[in-house]
Amino acid sequence: MPNTPARLETRSLTRRFGGRAVVDAVSLTIAPGQVTCLLGPSGCGKSTTLRMIAGVETPDDGQILIDGAEVFGPVTALPPEARGIGLMFQDFALFPHLTVAQNVGFGLKADRAARSARIGELLERVNLSGYGDKHPHQLSGGEQQRVALARALAPRPRIMLMDEPFSGLDNRLRDGIRDTTLEVLKEEGAAVLLVTHEPDEALRMADEIALMRGGRIVQRGSPYHVYNSPADKAAAAFFSDINVIRGVSRGALTETPFGEFLTPGHADGAEVDIIIRPQHLKIDFDRAGRGPNPTPMDGTPARGTVQRARFLGRESLVEFAMDFEGAKLTASVPGVFLPKPGTVLWLMIRRDRCFVFPAQRASHASA
Ligand SMILES: Nc1ncnc2c1ncn2[C@@H]1O[C@H](COP(=O)(O)OP(=O)(O)OP(=O)(O)O)[C@@H](O)[C@H]1O
Q1: What residues pair up with 191 in beta bridges, in sequence order?
Q2: Cβ–ligand 1 contact at 22 (below 6 Å)
Q3: What is the pLDDT of residues 210-251, one digit of tens each?
Q4: Residue 183 pLDDT class (50, 70, 90 cuts)
Q5: Ligand 1: which atom is nearest the Cα of residue 197?
Q6: ipTM summary value
Q7: Please, which pLDDT band fits residue 361 given cuts at 50, 70 and 90?
Q8: How many angstroms separate the most distant Cα atoms in the chain?
Q9: Which of 51, 106, 177, 218 has the lowest tally of Cβ within 10 angstroms?
Q10: Mean pLDDT over each residue of the chain, to the nearest integer
């Protein structure tokens, strides 16, 4: 549908505080029914972006369009209530003196019958049928959050803006509520912009992740794409611990203790960082001082000595001191794998799972 305008579009949205652009030319497009997660570390400008779209913060530059019509720009500045936007924040408290049904119906402009039908429909969607007459204090945190979602969705907003909506919830509740929320949002068809600093939340919820750093969008794409083809080292490091092997590219190849890596596009003599996530290191046993045979996919094995092994529930993390250059690498293994410190093992690197970037000093690598 190339001619259908995006439900929400921002063009070069910019906000400066004290001469510093905390949001710097942010351009996003979100289709109806699409969930985009604005993901980034604290202070990178996520909330300010959301607040500008909501209309409670005035951009210094740029344009905001909803269904192709400008709501903010050189000639327009619609107030928040005229934008058809629903909001949900972590501390967006329910009205304590109103019942659940009254809370959900609060922003609804409809006659009594239509109102009560909409309230019933939404309470059913969030699995709270029968809770209409209760008061917020009689509900658990997760139930209150579901009421808040129903309340935000009641007037059928075209766009839902959510700022860390689940961060106040107990870990055990969170996954279930994320899934229910996602289901309801999809059914309602609103375009959703969800702000989070948690990569797991973005991977779980998003159709598209917009990774933000220092006021700018550094990468946009599906969760699969952003995780598996990070734009740079910091983008890779934002989603998991990473292992870095430094080398020098010569003739589009880089020689390392794990064998040669293809490093096309890097100048002769340029330092490169070969990056591998802990779950993509392969571990093999020592065979009387030798490791497994090299393969085209896994390259040459390199010897390491276990320093520490920790069980984290779903996986075990094993830290190695490698024989080469005092290197330390961390491997993650599904389930229980707890070799004793001092055990000698061999590591290999899956060639299809590494990323190669120009070498960066550590001080430039923060996301
Ligand atoms: N009204 C303001 N005046 C001055 N600086 C501000 C103002 N609002 C935000 N900032 C600054 O802008 C930057 C971005 O803030 P913002 O809240 O958008 O970040 P964030 O990515 O949402 O972070 P967090 O997840 O911690 O909320 C921060 O450095 C913040 O201190």
Answers
A1: 159
A2: yes
A3: 999 999 999 999 999 999 999 999 999 999 999 999 999 999
A4: confident
A5: 25
A6: 0.94
A7: low
A8: 81
A9: 106
A10: 92
Find the helix or strand (DSSP H, E) in which 348 lies.
strand 344-349
Among 224, 153, 216, smallest CA distance to 182 is for: 153
Model pTM?
A: 0.89
Please work out whether the CB of residue 19 comes within 6 Å of at least one atom of ligand 1.
no
Which is the closest atom of ligand 1 to the Cα of 57? 1
Confidence at residue 366, expressed as pLDDT on a 0 to 100 scale: 41
Read off the tokens for 323. 């024989």
Predicted confidence at residue 367, as pLDDT, reads: 40
Select from 24, 38, 47 the residue to mutate for testing ligand 1; criterion: most ligand atoms less than 8 Å from CB.
47
Measured in Å, residue 367 CA sits from the centre of ligand 1 at 16
The residue nearest atom 26 of ligand 1, judged by CA position, is: 42
Which residue minimizes the CA distance to atom 3 of ligand 1?
Answer: 17
How would you write 15-31 as a 3-class SS string? EEECCEEEEEEEEEEEC
State which CATH number among 2.40.420.20, 2.40.50.140, 2.170.120.12, 3.40.140.10 fits the domain covering 241-358: 2.40.50.140
Extents of the domains making up the chain? 8-236, 241-358
